[in-house]
């Protein structure tokens, strides 16, 4: 597969400077092949006719022994290559339900574990290993252990992604392989660039370079990594994967050189690199008969009709094949270890004599007849009557004979189809020194001195029993025929030589060869002893003996003469390997179709055909008409393919099959579109043959640049005797319309389908007058009516907007044809031009079966605002979303950045238990690139339109809009159920649906996802533009959409031919939409005012001693916000607190900028006066309260501290007795129900209660007091409405603070000494005083008892008489009114010892009587 080289070419192999023939400082080696011509393959490419005689090169060099590094590297490459091969097989399985997928995954894991458990060569015991080698060995060993462990635990989930990650990690520890490795991978059928790891140091061996040389200039090269062909004694796994194996190399031009889109050559080689001591049993040299020849050419010239050395001019008598270097036979001496087998013999090099047109079926021959004017002005024969097109002399047309194996159908005729006169002459003026005109004219002028005309005829090849390749091999193997015993080749230098003399031959030459054989077995391959070194010869050959003895290979003439003009390297012997057992094969190429043929944004593809190249053979498929997805469904068969390799080697590494996609324009010019290459499936036994399934192969125009895909497969079948008798493979391929079609077993299944399209309109068409839509699928096509007024209304007419195509479509997705959409513009006078077209290559997303039982009818999107909602949705929004007050409490702390940090798992934002309530999904690319959002298109899918010819500045010429996926369907008819093209199954008329109004805004309504792109995933309503559906983009397709909408009319927005609706961005909800609206900026705090009222303290530590040795403290309070120490405030002093209680009624006021989303305060200030920008500092919103004891002559004493995080502070206690230090535990160990509750002051706004103060004592915090405070947080606006002053200053309100009631303690000893004395003594001697009082009381009682006891005893013992008065009558005044005197209640006192007396007379006291009469006037007067 080579371009045409007019000169002879050869290949040169070098490693470093060794083998470079241009570098004379190094020893000459057998590093180049023999010169060979390139032969036409019968199509467009050429090849080198080596056939059974293969050239061999042997390059010896000296390098450091780095085998310990290479063994480790090759073992890792073996592991990587097996993993990559299994991964490629895994990727090729498209059906996820295929049972073979799991088997392949298990095979991948099993082989990976097996490879990773294989230990790497140890570097610790290697004396030449460096520290870097040991560290790298440890890293690689740990990686293999980790991969083996992961492979054992791997589950069949995300298989491809997991294997790709393992492959990436293996590539990371492997060196970069360079461009040649990329070529090898491409040749092996592995398309797609590999991830190249960093450069590998300490390689030690340079890469092997293979150069293609023409005209003594390097034209192209292939670079092979040395480790890939290095041999190792440790075994095959430690050797290079290509060591001793046949491989295909892709040569490439140096950067900036060579023809564009042309490969210089495919080279099939077998390479071995290793220590010469390991080359004794080299299998590479045992595959054929190895021969070494010394070669020189004898040259003669024809002088005076005699052949001899006269007339050679500068050409030497004996030279190389190019006639440049002098190589006499007498100066050739065998090198050390070799001897001559026989004498010099003449052997014609038939390879150089091959007809370059041997593989052509027909050849055009031409001869130009030349004439000149004589002195009379008449035309006569010129000095050189017959020439070629370049003016070089040729044989006369009557002397040109037909070669053997060819025939003529017509004789010579004059060519009249050019710019010539009626007789075919063209005229010119001869210009010295050549005498040939530079310009030819068809009109004769008097000053013209030359004229010529072209005679042409076509010769055709005879159809023989042998193929062209067999004829070529037979020609190369022929012995000397009659008249060829001398072996002369005739012609001039610089042109083609022939075995037979030509009439105008002036030069001849013949090849002398002499074979060399090794002396004896020296334990190495003899070919590595063929080396010559000038320095070595000068060192060991000195004096006159050296001068008298000829040097081997004619080195004396080259190197002894310091004034030599020829500085080329000496000519070395040539090594050949002859294979006597050919193998014939048959190649079957099954080609179906190509797709995705869009390159450089150009879609049109004209006259496509496929050219298949295999080895030195090539064939072409049929040329199709213009199509963006050409389908050939053709089989190309190559028969009698000749290979001299071992069939088993061919099966392991077969030659590459190259498929090239070409296009032919209307002028017949062919251009290459792209090529794909992969190895065919090789069958050595027909019993195991299975037709290979067709797969998609990438079409590459340049390395790494994909230009499309081609669906094909190839198989190579060995021709055996059994196969030759039956010819089974070719008989299984059907023949139709002059070509082989695909076998039935791999042909796609065709089914009758219907494609239904609703054509909406066109957008962004810069030049369009009256466009219409043309839809093509295979052979079927439909058109819409033209848009009459495109500038005003770019939509298609409603009556013709629905298109239905009834086509035959493959049921398999892999074989589906593309749908081509073209825009045809109609101009005046019926002129039509294609202004743009688009390809829809995959129709599977649009496929549906409307006749299936589980078919769900797709619903149209609702763009008009409807307030009707389903009942369940109403209840959900009514009672669920709006009842979550606990979640609303955190709403003010959640901004766009909080959701972003939560989504990206960054610890820059707070995390609540309601974090999942506010959730964003963050993509690592723009939303247009996310497949779920389908490019943020509107409800109409947009297809870009491209022009036929490329325009690099503006490739896209417009856009075609089609409602998708709701209104673009592919479905199968049932029993001719499709009767009308205007309605779809089940009565859905597409042409009747048109949107009436837009939704929200133009940019929102024009997107398919409406307003939900970028919203939180929570179902909660946000803002005014809240969606009524919370479905994902996938679930919204095919569902009824209903939003509250208000905006201008949709048709008004869609009539613009420049803006359209495609490509507009989507708006988001109020919280997340700030970024898309361009309003998202750095977070800024909100101004708040914190008011802290210090009421009183309790149980504060007393640290001072007064005159009476009592503990006391002069208490005051300090307060500030963390980070704002400059704004520290303090209360007045409560003097002489004897109980730890202090009253203040003092107000602190702090101003801060609070960032709720991060729970921090923000302060911006300039670091220096000259600073331009302020520096922002963030610190926690923390209130610090400290209790101090005031001292006059010494520093104040610290009594305790209270730190409250305003966003997460404990609830205060209602009473001082309930306040404890446990309230401040940061990590409480109590059960949840016993823990103190926390709250945020920014949500609660105000709170009053007791908080504990604590002090660090002995490394532990203890309670040192209690503070009662009122905390209130106000926004900046609220603080202006409710002003208040600091302390007790005006305005003293909200609340009003009165001076506290404190005891006046000045001169307390003088003002109340008794009280103070009692207070002091009572506190000190209270127990003694109580005991004294108790004892005193008991003593008093005892004394009283003792004092009263004698009198009492005397009265009770003696009993003296008592003197009594007469008895007294007592009247019952109250009851006397209702009773008689007899029954009155007069209680006489009768005593027997008493006697009545008459001396005294009892009278009633008037006082009581008068009173009784006043109260009771009806009482009777008392009786006597």
Give the structural class: alpha+beta
Quantity of strands, as a count = 59
Beta fraction of the residues? 25-35%
Mean pLDDT: 75
Helix content: 10-25%
- Low-confidence parts: 177-199, 533-568, 599-603, 860-869, 880-888, 964-968, 973-1079, 1373-1416
Total helices: the number is 24
N-to-C span: 173 Å
Shape summary: elongated
For the CA atoms, what is the radius of gyration?
56 Å
Largest sheet: 9 strands, antiparallel
Question: Your description of this structure?
Answer:
The protein has 24 helices and 59 strands. With about 1400 residues, it is α+β, with helices and mostly antiparallel strands. The strands form 14 sheets. Strands 4, 9, 10, 11, 12, 13, 20, 21 and 22 form a nine-stranded antiparallel sheet that branches. Strands 23, 26, 29, 30, 31, 32 and 33 form a seven-stranded mixed sheet that branches. Strand 48 (about 1110-1120) and strand 49 form a beta hairpin. Helix 1 (about 65-90) runs antiparallel to helix 2 (about 100-115) and helix 1 packs antiparallel against helix 4 (about 160-170).
Which keywords apply here?
1424 residues; 59 strands; alpha+beta; elongated; nine-stranded antiparallel sheet
Question: What's the structural blueprint in terms of helices and strands?
Answer:
Blueprint: E1 9-15, E2 39-40, E3 46-47, E4 53-56, H1 67-92, H2 99-116, H3 131-153, H4 159-172, H5 178-187, E5 208-214, E6 217-224, E7 246-250, E8 266-270, E9 289-303, E10 306-308, E11 318-319, E12 338-340, E13 345-346, H6 350-353, E14 362-373, E15 379-387, E16 406-408, E17 413-414, E18 425-428, E19 450-461, H7 468-476, E20 489-490, E21 507-518, H8 534-540, H9 544-548, H10 555-559, E22 574-578, E23 583-595, E24 608-614, E25 617-620, E26 631-643, H11 647-652, E27 657-664, E28 670-678, E29 681-683, E30 695-702, E31 705-718, H12 721-726, H13 728-731, E32 735-736, E33 739-741, E34 750-758, E35 761-763, E36 771-777, E37 780-783, E38 802-810, E39 819-826, E40 832-840, H14 871-880, H15 885-888, H16 896-903, E41 940-946, E42 956-963, E43 968-971, E44 983-984, E45 988-989, H17 1002-1005, H18 1033-1036, H19 1050-1054, E46 1086-1098, E47 1104-1105, E48 1111-1121, E49 1129-1130, E50 1134-1137, E51 1142-1155, E52 1160-1165, E53 1175-1180, E54 1182-1189, E55 1197-1205, E56 1209-1210, E57 1238-1239, H20 1241-1244, E58 1246-1257, E59 1260-1275, H21 1276-1281, ...
Parallel strand pairs: 29-31
Antiparallel strand pairs: 1-5, 2-3, 4-22, 5-6, 7-8, 9-10, 9-11, 9-21, 9-22, 12-21, 13-21, 14-15, 14-19, 16-19, 17-19, 18-19, 20-21, 23-26, 23-31, 24-25, 24-27, 26-33, 27-28, 30-31, 32-33, 34-38, 34-43, 35-42, 36-37, 36-39, 39-40, 41-42, 44-45, 46-51, 46-59, 47-48, 48-49, 48-50, 48-54, 51-52, ...
Helix pairs in contact: 1-2, 1-4, 2-3
């Amino acid at each position: 597969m080579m371009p045409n080289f007019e000169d002879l070419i050869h290949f040169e192999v070098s490693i470093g400077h060794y083998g470079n023939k241009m570098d004379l400082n190094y020893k000459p080696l057998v590093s180049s092949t023999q010169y060979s011509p390139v032969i036409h393959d019968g199509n467009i490419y050429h090849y080198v006719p080596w056939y059974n005689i293969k050239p061999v090169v042997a390059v010896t060099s000296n390098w450091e022994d780095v085998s310990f590094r290479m063994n480790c590297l090759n073992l890792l490459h073996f592991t990587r290559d097996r993993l990559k091969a299994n991964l490629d097989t895994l990727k090729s399985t498209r059906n996820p339900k295929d049972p073979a997928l799991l088997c392949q995954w298990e095979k991948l894991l099993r082989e990976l574990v097996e490879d990773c458990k294989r230990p790497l060569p140890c570097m610790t015991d290697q004396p030449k290993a460096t520290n870097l080698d040991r560290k790298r060995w440890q890293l690689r060993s740990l990686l293999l252990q980790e991969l083996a462990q992961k492979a054992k635990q791997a589950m069949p989930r995300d298989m491809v992604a997991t294997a790709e990650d393992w492959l990436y990690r293996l590539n990371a520890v492997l060196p970069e392989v360079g461009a040649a490795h990329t070529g090898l991978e491409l040749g092996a059928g592995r398309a797609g660039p590999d991830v190249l790891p960093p450069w590998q140091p300490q390689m030690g061996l340079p890469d092997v370079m293979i150069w293609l040389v023409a005209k003594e200039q390097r034209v192209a090269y292939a670079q092979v990594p040395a480790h890939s062909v290095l041999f190792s004694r440790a075994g095959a796994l430690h050797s290079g994967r290509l060591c001793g194996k046949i491989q295909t190399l892709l040569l490439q031009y140096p950067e900036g050189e060579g023809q564009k889109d042309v490969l210089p050559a495919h080279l099939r080689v077998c390479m071995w690199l290793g220590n010469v001591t390991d080359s004794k049993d080299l299998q590479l040299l045992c595959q054929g008969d190895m021969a070494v020849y010394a070669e020189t050419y004898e040259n003669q010239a024809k002088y005076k009709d005699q052949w001899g050395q006269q007339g050679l001019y500068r050409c030497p008598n004996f030279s190389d094949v190019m006639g440049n270097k002098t190589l006499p036979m007498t100066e050739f001496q065998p090198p050390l270890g070799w001897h001559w087998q026989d004498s010099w013999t003449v052997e014609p090099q038939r390879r150089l004599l091959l007809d370059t047109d041997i593989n052509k079926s027909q050849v055009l021959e031409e001869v130009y007849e030349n004439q000149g004017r004589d002195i009379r002005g008449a035309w006569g024969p010129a000095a050189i009557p017959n020439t070629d097109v370049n003016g070089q002399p040729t044989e006369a047309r009557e002397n040109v004979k037909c070669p053997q194996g060819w025939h003529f159908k017509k004789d010579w005729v004059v060519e009249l189809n050019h710019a010539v006169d009626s007789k075919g002459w063209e005229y010119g003026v001869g210009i010295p020194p050549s005498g040939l005109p530079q310009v030819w004219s068809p009109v004769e002028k008097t000053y013209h001195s030359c004229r010529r005309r072209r005679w042409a005829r076509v010769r055709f090849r005879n159809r023989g029993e042998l193929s062209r390749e067999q004829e070529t091999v037979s020609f190369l193997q022929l012995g000397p025929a009659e008249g060829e015993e001398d072996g002369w080749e005739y012609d001039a230098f610089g042109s083609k030589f022939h075995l037979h003399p030509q009439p105008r031959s002036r030069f001849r030459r013949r090849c002398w060869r002499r074979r060399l054989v090794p002396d004896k077995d020296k334990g190495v391959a003899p070919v590595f002893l063929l080396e010559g070194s000038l320095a070595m010869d000068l060192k060991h050959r000195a004096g006159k003996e050296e001068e008298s003895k000829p040097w081997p290979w004619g080195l004396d003439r080259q190197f002894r003469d310091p004034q030599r003009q020829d500085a080329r390297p000496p000519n070395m012997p040539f090594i050949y390997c002859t294979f006597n057992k050919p193998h014939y094969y048959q190649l079957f190429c099954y080609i179906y179709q190509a797709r995705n043929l869009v390159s450089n944004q150009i879609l049109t593809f004209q006259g496509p055909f496929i050219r298949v190249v295999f080895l030195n053979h090539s064939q072409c498929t049929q040329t199709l008409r213009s199509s963006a997805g050409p389908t050939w469904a053709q089989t190309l068969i190559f028969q009698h393919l000749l290979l001299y390799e071992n069939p088993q080697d061919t099966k392991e590494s077969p030659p590459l099959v190259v498929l090239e996609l070409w296009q032919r324009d209307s002028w017949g010019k062919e251009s290459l579109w792209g090529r794909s290459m992969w190895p065919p499936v090789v069958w050595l036994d027909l019993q195991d043959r299975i037709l290979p399934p067709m797969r998609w192969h990438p079409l590459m125009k340049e390395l790494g640049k994909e230009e499309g895909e081609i669906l094909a497969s190839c198989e190579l079948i060995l021709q055996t005797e059994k196969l030759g008798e039956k010819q089974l493979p070719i008989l299984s391929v059907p023949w139709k319309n002059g070509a082989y079609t695909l076998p039935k077993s791999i042909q796609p299944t065709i089914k009758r389908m219907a494609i239904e399209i609703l054509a909406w309109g066109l957008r962004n068409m810069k030049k369009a007058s009256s466009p219409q839509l043309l839809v093509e699928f295979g052979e079927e096509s439909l058109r819409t009516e033209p848009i009459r007024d495109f500038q005003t209304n770019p939509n298609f007419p409603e009556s013709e907007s629905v298109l239905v195509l009834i086509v035959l479509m493959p049921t398999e997705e892999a074989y589906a044809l593309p749908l081509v959409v073209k825009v045809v513009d109609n101009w005046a006078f019926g002129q039509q031009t294609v202004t743009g077209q688009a390809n829809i290559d995959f129709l599977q997303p649009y496929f549906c079966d409307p006749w299936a039982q589980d078919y769900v009818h797709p619903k149209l999107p609702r763009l008009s605002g409807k307030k009707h909602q389903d009942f369940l949705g109403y209840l959900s929004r009514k009672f669920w979303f709006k009842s979550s007050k606990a979640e609303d409490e955190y709403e003010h702390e959640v901004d766009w950045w909080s959701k972003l940090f939560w989504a990206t798992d960054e610890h820059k934002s707070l995390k609540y238990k309601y974090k999942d309530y506010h959730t964003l999904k963050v993509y690592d690319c723009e939303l247009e690139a996310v497949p779920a959002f389908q490019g943020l298109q509107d409800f109409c899918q947009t297809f870009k339109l491209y022009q036929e010819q490329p325009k690099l500045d503006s490739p896209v010429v417009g856009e075609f809009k089609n409602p998708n996926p709701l209104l673009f369907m592919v479905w199968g008819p049932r029993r001719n159920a499709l009767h009308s093209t205007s309605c779809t199954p089940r009565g859905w008329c597409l042409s009747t649906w048109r949107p009436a109004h837009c939704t929200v805004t133009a940019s929102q309504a024009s997107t398919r996802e409406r307003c939900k792109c970028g919203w939180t995933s929570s179902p909660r309503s946000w803002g005014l533009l809240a969606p009524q559906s919370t479905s994902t983009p996938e679930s919204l397709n095919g569902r009824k959409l209903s939003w509250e909408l208000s905006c201008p009319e949709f048709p008004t927005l869609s009539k613009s031919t420049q803006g359209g609706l495609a490509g507009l961005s989507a708006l988001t909800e109020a919280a997340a939409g700030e970024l898309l609206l361009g309003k998202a900026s750095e977070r800024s705090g909100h101004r708040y005012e914190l008011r802290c009222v210090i009421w009183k303290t309790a149980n504060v530590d007393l640290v001072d001693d007064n005159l009476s040795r009592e503990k006391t403290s002069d208490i005051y309070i300090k307060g500030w916000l963390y980070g704002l120490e400059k704004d520290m405030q303090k209360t007045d002093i409560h003097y002489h607190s004897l109980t730890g209680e202090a009253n203040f009624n003092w107000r602190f006021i702090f101003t801060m900028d609070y960032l709720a989303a991060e729970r921090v305060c923000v302060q911006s200030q300039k670091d220096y006066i000259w600073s331009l920008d302020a520096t922002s500092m963030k610190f926690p919103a923390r209130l610090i309260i400290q209790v101090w004891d005031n001292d006059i002559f010494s520093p104040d004493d610290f009594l305790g501290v209270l730190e409250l995080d305003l966003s997460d502070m404990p609830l205060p206690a209602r009473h001082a007795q309930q306040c404890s230090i446990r309230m401040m535990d940061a990590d409480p160990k109590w059960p949840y129900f016993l823990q103190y509750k926390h709250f945020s002051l920014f949500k609660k706004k105000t709170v009053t209660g007791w908080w504990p103060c604590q002090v660090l004592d002995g490394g532990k915090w203890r309670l040192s007091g209690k503070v009662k405070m009122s905390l209130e947080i106000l926004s900046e606006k609220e603080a202006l409405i409710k002003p208040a002053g600091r302390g007790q200053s005006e305005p003293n309100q909200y609340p009003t603070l009165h001076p506290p009631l404190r005891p006046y303690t000045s001169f307390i000893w003088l003002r109340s000494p008794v009280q103070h004395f009692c207070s002091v003594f009572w506190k000190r001697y209270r127990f003694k005083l109580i005991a004294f009082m108790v004892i005193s009381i008991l003593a008093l009682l005892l004394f009283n008892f003792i004092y009263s006891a004698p009198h009492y005893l005397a009265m009770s013992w003696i009993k003296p008489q008592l003197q009594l008065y007469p008895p007294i009558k007592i009247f019952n005044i109250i009851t006397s009114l209702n009773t008689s005197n007899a029954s009155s209640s007069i209680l006489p006192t009768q005593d027997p010892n008493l006697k009545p007396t008459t001396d005294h007379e009892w009278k009633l006291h008037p006082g009581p009587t008068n009173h009784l009469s006043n109260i009771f006037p009806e009482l009777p007067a008392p009786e006597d």
